[in-house]
Amino acid sequence: MARVVRFHEFGGPEVLRIENVDLPALGRGEIRLRVKALGLNRAETLLRMGRYIETPLLPSGLGLEAAGFVETVGEGVDDFAPGDIVSVIPPVSMVRWPAYGEVATFPARLLVKHPPSLGWVEAAALWMQYLTAYGALIDIAGLHKNDFVVITAASSSVGLAAIQIANMVGATPIAVTRTSSKARALLDHGAGYVIASQEENLERRLEEITQTKGVRVVLDAVGGHIFEPLTAAMCEGGILIEYGGLSNEPTPFPLFNVLSKRLTLRGYLVHEVINDQDRLDTAKSFILAGLASGGLQPVIARTFAFDDIIEAHHFLQSNQQFGKIVVTL
Question: CA–CA separation, 48 vs 95, rounded Å?
Answer without folding.
Answer: 11
